[in-house]
Amino acid sequence: MAEKKFKAMIVEESADNIFQRIIKEKSTGELPDGDVLVQVKYSSLNYKDALSATGNRGVTRNYPHTPGIDASGIVEESRDDRFRPGDAVIVTSYDLGMNTPGGFGQYIRVPVDWVVKLPPRLSLEESMIFGTAGFTAGVGAWHLSAIRPDQGEILVTGATGGVGSLAVAILAKCGYSVTAVTGKSTEKQFLRDLGAQNIINREAALDTGGRPLLKARWAGVFDTVGGEMLATAIKSTDLYGTVTCCGNVSSPDLPINVFPFILRGIHLVGISSQNTPMDLRLKIWDRLADKWKPEKLHMLPKYIPLEALDENIALILKGQQKGRVVVDLEK
Q1: Are 139 and 284 in contact (CB under 8 A)?
Q2: How many Cα atoms within 13 Å fall on the side-chain side of residue 172?
Q3: Which residues of the chain have pLDDT under 70?
Q4: Distance separating the N- and C-terminal Cα atoms of the chain
Q5: Cα dihedral value 111, 83, 101, 27, nearest 10
Q6: CATH number of the domain where residue 179 is located
């Protein structure tokens, strides 16, 4: 097939480790080798994208680069019989948007093993309302599913962020009583609309007194924050509860001892959505498309064109972004 021109965000490095973001024209011939060429219809903005877009070498080694760890679109070319031109697909995780040109461009070319067929009952747009954030929330819900809703409350920290807000909505859809933690007092109605039954502020969810155990309150926890917040949540989890961990926005350190694990049998489960095996990945996407899909999924996103990414990257880095930002590549 002849090469095609397309629009993409490019992060370029100038002298003295200064990075700038521009929208420019590229060609499909510039994309790396891969099995499947996808015309991207939608992407989404994640914290990792913001890091890549500002020159974080822990995410992206070499520049110029196109971020975007999420993409949904239509297959244009495939060297593998599992996919044919015209198939609607999702590509998230692996190396997309990190060191492989990502979803902030109108075309991507990737290995076939990174590609998921769009499940029935899910649109391309909805798949990017979920994106990596929703998929991460889905992996957490999978690990928490051994807890019965009648066993007690599930705590969700960082509840107004992309991952946290989707975790609130998915867990509420699963029938759990969800308590949401937020530092944004103005967003309580937003969290109630997503299904949170209780809302507490950050101070109420933190204990810095150094006690080895706290009064048991939570049947399970979905943590997006790390640090003292995660330590407090673990110490407050009831017998044989499960705590999932997927973020470190507060701190990568975990100031805790072994007592919650050996006296209450707490399970601490780390979520690595990027490396989730394909068999589990397909199960998670199938549930997100069906019985885990929140009724109010469409209240979560705002839609932007590529040209509006700059200002939204600044917001997410300041912790001022709410819900999800979906990038419409056709705008």
Answers
A1: yes
A2: 23
A3: 1
A4: 25
A5: 120
A6: 3.40.50.720
CA angle 271, 276, 281 (to 5 degrees): 115
pLDDT value for 135 = 98
Query: Do residues 94 and 114 touch, judged by C-beta distance below 8 A?
Result: yes
Q: How many domains does the chain have?
A: 2
Structure tokens, 118: 């769009």
Residue 123, domain member (yes or no): no
CA-nearest of 40, 30, 65 to 51 is 65
pLDDT in tens, 40-56: 999 999 999 999 999 99
Name the residue range of residue 142's domain: 133-273
Question: What whole-number distance in Å separates Cα of residue 85 and Cα of residue 65?
Answer: 26
The pLDDT tens digits of the residues spanning 98-129 come to: 999 999 999 999 999 999 999 999 999 999 99
* H/E stretch holding 322: none
**Contact of 6 with 107, CB cutoff 8 Å:** yes
The pTM for the full model equals 0.95
Evaluate whether residue 239 is within a structural domain: yes
Per-residue pLDDT, 185:
82
